[in-house]
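Page 42, continued from yesterday. The earlier attempt failed because a stray header line got pasted into the input along with the sequence. Redoing it now with the clean sequence only.
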Amino acid sequence: MEIYRTKIPKLHGTNGSELYRHARTAYKEVASKTKRRPYVRSLYFKKEKVFIDYFWGHLDGKNWNDRLRRLRFYGCALDLIRNSKKHPELAPTKDSAKRSENLYRFFGETKDGERFAVQIKEDIKRDEKYFISVFPLP
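This time it went through. Structure tokens are written below.
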């Protein structure tokens, strides 16, 4: 397991709405640079686009405490996607019979020393990558 050390600390907030606002601001900074779907370019994937809008749909399916736990690492996740050259772990998908998808799990450490994981799904047929999830590691 190779770990990328980010240069960005976790997002901080005194309550959930403040933390949510900080994460959405980071998202809007990226989204404002394109007219279409927001993306960041990844060094690991040879500067290919990784679309970041799927994360918010995935986050809506979680309970409030889990959302806040994941949102704290949003800025760190974007930094990892952009700058990491570390090799990810190929995680098993829900349906292992699907050969049209790969699920990559990157590992990172914040500036504060906390570890987290970022999941990126690759759709092989469409040749597209999606930032799905970020979560802290125990």
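Notes: The chain has four helices and seven strands.
Reminder to self: strip header lines before submitting.
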